[in-house]
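Q: CCHC-type domain-containing protein, please. Structure only.
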Amino acid sequence: MKERKIATSGDWRLVTRRKRFPDNWRTPVDEKLDKVRPYAPYKQTYAQVVAKPRPRPSPQGSSTQSHLHYHPSPPSNQPSRSSTPPTPPGTRYYTSPHSPTSLRFPPMATYPEWRGRCFRCLRLGHTAAQCCNPFKCAKCWSDGHIASKCLNTQSNSSTRLSPSVTPSPQQFEPSFDELLQGDTPPPTPILPDGRPEKVMCFIERDEEVYREIQNLNRAVVIHGERQGLLLEAHQIVQMAVETKLVREEEIRVAQLARERHLIHLPRSLSIHTFVKALPRWLWDQGFDIQQWSPLDAATVLMPRFKVLLDLEDFPIYLWKETQLIKAVSQFGIYLGSVQPEHALDFTAWRVSVATDDLRRIPMMIAIVVGGIEHQSRVKPIVWSKGPIYSASDFPELPSRLTPPPPSPTQLDNDMI
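A: Structure for CCHC-type domain-containing protein:
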């Protein structure tokens, strides 16, 4: 996509598909409104980042937390450097009204939550040497004494907290282990009538999609669905090795639906050369061998409408571009969004989508999060008609591969 740029290293990604609010749509300036500090969803303070617990693997080994990357600690015989020093024995935690994280006492300059914080009054922005404020007690939050000399036992018990101030859920979504019980997969369950025949899901093309298509351009597919023919994966590997063009460790095989197998070839081997070296009996028995293409068993659905919408009452705790893309994927391809006129305006999220039929755009979107349903009203703003893709945006259909000519021995056998 021309409107998206990728950083040269790491996982950082710069998304530039959120447009500024058009100047010609702006209302007269309200100085009082501009002075209000807006809330920024998913924006963390430095202290919140420091206090974020380290992700740990699920004790049940559930796949629902597979997106959390857990890095185990290095072996004890290898030197390791921690981002924060270990907490000395006897350290206690108390909550500060000036910080969203817990403060460790006694304070140490090496603790992230104490960087830039005064050890005397516990406020940010200056050091104890520059402080003119009275001492602040970390236990009862009274002035004039420090926590180690605090005699207020009632406040001491009420202000003491455990290190984990905000509990984290064990699983983001429930497990489905009960569906995997038994020795063999159960028979197809009977579902109620009235199920939709087809559900649309528009998925945007990103750099990873193009990269995977480029990688699969070195693959061939053996089709056996026409005659209901079956081949085992180990037979395909053996046939590939018998061509003497590739070693067993150089190819990868995938079993696809509809009696098809994919063979991924090394870069040094031409697809045409490999297919010509395969045994002729594959074609004679009804198999068809062709280069892989994303157009295989697919149809072209050309979105011809660009629509600008307002999603009113979109849940503020889901105000994130990835969540917005999921919400509109049922009826259109996400093209981008528009910043609100004022940063504190979260009444509606203005989004642009592309779709093939304006009748796909619903009146309402039901957003279900953990069993909680939110209803967001869809309000069209403006739309335009015209294809959003050109011929160059579609992959070229590869030329069809033909079976190799029969060998002289085979011709003699056919004549006999």
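A: Brief note, in case it's useful. Residues 172 and 182 are 26 Å apart (CA to CA).
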